[in-house]
Amino acid sequence: MNIYELNNIIEGKITNIHKKIYKNIQTDTRKIDSDSLLFIFNLKHDNAYKYVRNMKVKPAIIVINDYEENIENISCIKVKDTIKAYSMLASYYKNKKYIPTIMITGSVGKTTTKDLIYDILSMSYKCKKTEGSKNNILGISNMLLSVKDEKILIVEAGSNHLGEIDEIADVVKPDIAVVTKIGTSHIGNFGNIKNIFKEKTNYINDSVLAFINGKDKYLKQMKGNNIYKVGKKNFKIKNIKIKNNISFKTSNIKLEFNSLNKDLITNVALAFYIGLLFNVPINKIKLAIKNYKFPDHRQNIISIKNTIIVDDTYNASYESVVSSIKLLKKIHKSRILILGDIYELGNKTDEIHNKIIKKTKKYRLYTVGNNFKHKNNFKTKEELFKFLKTINLNNKVILVKASRKMEFEKIVTFIKEVLEKDY
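Above: the chain sequence. Below: its structure as tokens.
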């Protein structure tokens, strides 16, 4: 593609021409060569402008915000918003050829559902998914620009403010929607639960086939011939059994899933029906579900001596904390909960943290941060570490969970080190 075609796609203004053709797209200045198209984000904050101007190997073309200066000996395109321009190019690139695209939204359970769908569909098709939790417009654009000969795309879309999902949907143009659950994540940014519901579902129209959690009290109110409510009517879930794992039936098919968390059953069923939609053989669907492995820090079970640590430190919301507490009921040991602050709750912060305290009255609860108001709260992880050295952690099940910014994986590491030593 030449600079004129590129400029038309991203709706920019060519302000300097040195080279007209690029052969690869980069956002990392460390990876460019003389044939690169380079997008730079937040020039004023990361000093990238000065770096690009002085580096020995310069890209063929650079896209910069319209308030920046041209760079000598580099073709320049100025745009109002480089991230938006990048997403416009990603959308163009993806839509040059038709690839069925599934987009997954919801307050909790998105990554598990995405990975399950990927594992199932990969049994029969070459698929591509958003990696980890790179579920914002930039991460998703990176994924779309790396598409090669995949037959199905699976996109997890996250949001922490109104309108973000609609922006992503405009780029992705999904054919199939999967919605997991409506909860309180980021409610401080959205204002109320109704706005969260709107944010997670607004992109679903008559041209999008939707599979939703039919048991969710908000989602089950949705109507439309293109909306399938998993957990209801022809998609009922029954014969649930929890012992060493979860088993249940849907459409008279028995499925087994390697978890003790009952709240994940609907997510598994959503993935199952996506597999059926794409005609993946049932025996392959069952195998993918049975062999599923959780990503790091998402309800990972760690056994050391006679103690079990539940590492659920990736992130937290009220709903996911309650779900993880339910999981502990299946493990018959003395229970310790180590919880940290949940962020972005706005004026609901005190209410939600107090609700969690009430839910944990039967357990030994230790918390870290500023939002839990009770006797066993520690201001810092370091204060907690000193305390943990004074108590017996043998023969316990210990849940560790907090919002991502709390970095509670460090607590898991500390507990493992303590347990591996002799008391």
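The first helix runs from residue 3 to 10.
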